[in-house]
Write a structure and sequence with these properties.
Elements: H1 4-20, E1 27-32, E2 35-41, H2 44-47, H3 54-66, E3 74-80, H4 84-92, E4 97-102, E5 127-129, H5 134-168
Parallel strand pairs: 3-4, 4-5
Antiparallel strand pairs: 1-2, 1-3
Helix pairs in contact: 1-5
Domain CMP/dCMP-type deaminase: 2-127
GO biological process, one term: tRNA wobble adenosine to inosine editing
Catalytic activity: adenosine(34) in tRNA + H2O + H(+) = inosine(34) in tRNA + NH4(+)
């Protein structure tokens, strides 16, 4: 049986695919009986779709593979702690276990900002394991956002230069 780090490394490979598309680098996989049945990465910018999160895309694929919406024996591996929307899908699809890498202090709903996945008021709770390959998962996000800020700064500087040239013309 493979361990959590093994599967998280595969989720990180999915995150790198998102990064190559200039998407926020988040990757997810669904494992059923020690077999990967779904893989996905963020596609919000590519698809211009607010719900194209890695977790939702992976859950959808897993449901298609298994022919059911109940993923009661599945484990979801995701590089960033699920947001409220993704946590709702996890609860509704009855995913048994969620393993995530980096914590999300702004939107994490698996224990950081709030804990929807283990709230006993819902009819389903998921086991949660956090911080698996946390440095690697957080590092890819940090590098992505640093580069994004630098690109935006360079674009603003170029735009300002063009404006000054136009004024001086």
């Amino acid at each position: 049986m493979k361990d959590d780090a093994y599967y998280m490394n595969i989720a990180l490979e999915e995150a790198k695919k998102a990064c190559a598309l200039q998407e926020v680098p988040i990757g997810a996989i669904v494992v059923w009986k020690d077999e990967i049945i779904a893989r996905a990465y963020n596609l919000r910018e590519t698809d211009q779709n607010a719900v194209a999160h890695a977790e939702l895309l992976a859950i959808r694929e897993a449901c298609e593979v298994l022919g059911t919406w109940r993923l009661e024996e599945a484990t979801l591996y995701v590089t960033l702690e699920p947001c409220p929307m993704c946590s709702g899908a996890i609860i509704n699809s009855r995913i048994k276990r969620v393993v995530f890498g980096a914590h999300d202090p702004k939107a994490g709903c698996a224990g950081t900002f709030m804990n929807l996945l283990q709230d006993e008021r819902f009819n389903h709770q998921s086991e949660v394991t956090s911080g698996v390959l946390q440095e690697e998962c957080g590092g890819i996000l940090t590098a992505f956002f640093k580069e994004l800020r630098e690109r935006k700064k360079a674009a603003k500087k170029a735009k300002n230069s063009r404006c000054i040239e136009d004024i001086n013309s």
